[in-house]
């Protein structure tokens, strides 16, 4: 009985070897021409112009509605939800008149956040924050999450709630390339 099992295992192993081997030369490049088909019906599934903002400020019951709302209508529909959540999360906005480092009070700041777009400066530096320019775009090396945490928790001069104002991820795991595609190869 044991010999039959060994024979079956040997046959299965040899079958795998035969099926796995082929005569193709793996060094030749074969170009397959493909065309892109954009026909059909597409729908918006998620918006993430500013990373983590949608995740933190939109309640789970409102996620689909928020993601399907065009950005020009988001502030009117969701600003009050954002403001409620901001005041519930951040002691930097606990008192009437509290502002962040941009000089924005809770209502103004959440109106800005609720319009989930990535702003881009057409005539200045593109950055999420560089000490002077704020929300004028996003460079690959920008520490977007720390900037958002500073604006949410850091108060008027970025000194409030220091434990909440930094994600403590101070560098990328790989250096960005100096030419396109700029992103480093994955591990």
Structural features, described:
It contains six helices and no strands. 36% of the residues lie in helices and 0% in strands. By secondary structure, it is an all-alpha fold. It has a domain of 112 residues. About 6% of the residues have low confidence.
Question: How do you describe this structure in short?
Answer:
This protein is 36% helix and 0% strand.
| CA-CA gap between termini | 48 Å
Q: Biggest β-sheet: count, sense, barrel?
A: none
Structural class, by secondary structure, is mainly alpha
As a percent range, the share of helical residues equals 25-40%
Kindly report the oligomeric state of this protein.
Answer: single chain
| Beta-strand share of residues | under 5%
Low-pLDDT stretches: 12-22
The total of helices stands at 6
Report the order of strands and helices: HHHHHH
- The count of strands amounts to 0
Instruction: Specify the overall morphology.
Output: globular
On the 0 to 100 scale, the average pLDDT is: 83
Cα radius of gyration in angstroms: 26 Å
Spell out the blueprint of helices and strands:
Elements: H1 2-20, H2 53-57, H3 63-68, H4 71-89, H5 106-114, H6 144-153
Which characteristics define this entry?
single chain, 0% strand, mainly alpha, 187 residues
């Amino acid at each position: 009985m044991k010999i039959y099992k060994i024979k079956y295992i040997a046959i299965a192993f040899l079958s795998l070897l035969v099926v796995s081997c082929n005569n193709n030369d793996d060094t030749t490049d074969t170009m397959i021409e493909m065309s892109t088909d954009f026909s059909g019906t597409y729908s918006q599934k998620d918006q993430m112009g500013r990373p983590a903002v949608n995740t933190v400020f939109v309640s789970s019951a409102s996620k689909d509605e928020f993601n399907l709302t065009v950005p020009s209508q988001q502030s009117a529909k969701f600003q009050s939800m954002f403001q409620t959540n901001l005041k519930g999360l951040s002691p930097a906005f606990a008192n009437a008149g509290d502002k962040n480092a941009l000089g924005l009070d809770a209502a103004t700041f959440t109106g800005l956040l609720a319009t989930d777009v990535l702003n881009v400066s057409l005539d200045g530096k593109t950055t999420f924050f560089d000490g002077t320019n704020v929300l004028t775009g996003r460079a690959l090396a920008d520490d977007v999450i720390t900037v958002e945490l500073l604006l949410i928790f850091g108060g008027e001069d970025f000194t409030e709630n220091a434990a909440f104002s930094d994600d403590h991820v101070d560098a990328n795991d790989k250096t960005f390339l100096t030419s396109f595609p700029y992103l480093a190869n994955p591990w």
